[in-house]
Design a protein that fits this description.
The protein has 13 helices and 10 strands. By secondary structure, it is of the alpha/beta class. It has 2 domains: 209 residues, D-Maltodextrin-Binding Protein, domain 2 (3-Layer(aba) Sandwich); 99 residues, D-Maltodextrin-Binding Protein, domain 2 (3-Layer(aba) Sandwich), CATH 3.40.190.10. Helix 6 links the parallel strand 6 and strand 7. Helix 1 packs parallel to helix 8, helix 2 crosses helix 10 and helix 2 crosses helix 11.
Length: 322
């Protein structure tokens, strides 16, 4: 079931580079298809996508883009592999997991975001007895989905602070709009939360940030990207190139014009203007940087999200740069 932004409203009431890659970069000629469905995780990381739609940049490329919103990254990718969606925007951990462990034929064609301060955090309720990272030992931490970007970042945080991973329990599949209530009612001791839910929980429920996940080995860490299937890329090179051009323009605007980001988040995520004005934003890069993305693969190997047999895997192999 699609995650509709009514959930955020409910939380408030109580949340110049072309960027082309692979075969698409040299594509010419007419579009293979003009109606394109994108399934995206509903987060601020998708601001460039939202701006490209809002400002008519896809239309300028001859594309009629429909944006659906997924409850989590795996839901988006599952639908993509079933042929429901042409393009997805999801977290890189889930993309890599699908490619290597589930043998999904995916290609990463653009970056959406990489971390900046206070964009992804661990939160605790007001007055919590957990006041430092070292007090997370033997506590329950919620994440949106098992073994995704949240798990990876928290594993890194715990390890760098000397906390054995087996001393912490993860409560998986806690939807971000439920984070505030779960904290307030003691169902979890700490919660992984991204913006805009960080600001919304602080504004509405008095929740507090325990730790910023943009630190240590995960400073400026890649979070979310855009992918198609390998078959879709081969069959629609001109359509993909047109999408990438418009998407890159949206990313450039997102990275340089905060007002445009706020407007897009208010429109697509129904974020209240006050929250939109207060949230922290990630960086919105253009193109694909395999060196930056390789950091994620290396971290997945380090924390056991990938078996050691993939020690030699280079993410450039699935970005069109390999």
């Amino acid at each position: 079931m699609k995650f509709r932004i009514a959930a955020i409203a409910a939380l408030v009431a109580v949340a110049g580079c072309s960027g082309t890659s692979g075969g698409a970069s040299g594509a010419s000629g007419g579009l293979e298809k003009t109606n394109v469905v994108v399934d995206a995780f509903p987060a601020i990381d998708s601001a460039g996508l939202f701006i490209a739609q809002m400002d008519g940049l896809f239309k300028q490329q001859g594309l009629n883009v429909t944006i659906d919103l997924a409850q989590n990254s795996q839901q988006a990718i599952t639908g993509q592999l079933a042929g429901k969606f042409d393009i997805t925007s999801a977290d890189y951990v889930t993309y890599v997991d699908n490619v290597l462990l589930k043998k999904a034929p995916l290609r990463i064609v653009a970056e959406s975001s990489f971390l900046q301060p206070n964009v992804l955090t661990l939160m605790v309720k007001a007055g919590s007895g957990v006041r430092s990272i070292t007090q997370l030992r033997h506590q329950v931490i919620s994440v949106n989905a098992p073994k995704d970007i949240g798990t990876l970042l928290i594993d890194s945080l715990l390890t760098e602070n000397g906390i054995p991973l087996d001393t912490v329990k993860f409560n998986n599949n806690v939807a971000f709009p439920s984070v505030g209530a779960d904290l307030a009612h003691g169902r979890v001791d700490a919660a992984f939360a991204p913006e805009p839910f960080v600001s919304l929980n602080e504004i509405q429920g008095g929740a507090q940030e325990l730790a910023d996940l943009d630190q240590g080995t995960t400073t400026n860490f890649p979070v979310q990207g855009v992918a198609v299937t390998q078959d879709w890329a081969r069959e629609n090179p001109n359509t993909l190139a047109a999408f990438e051009r418009a998407y890159s323009q949206g990313q450039q605007i997102a990275d340089t014009n905060r007002a445009a980001v706020e407007t897009a988040l208010e429109k697509f995520l129904q974020l209240p203007p006050l929250a939109a004005s207060l949230i922290s934003l990630p960086s919105f890069p253009t193109g694909v940087d395999p060196v930056r993305l390789q950091r994620l693969v290396d971290a997945m190997l380090r924390f056991g999200l990938l078996p050691k047999q993939y020690n030699s895997f280079k993410i450039a192999a699935i970005t069109g740069n390999g």
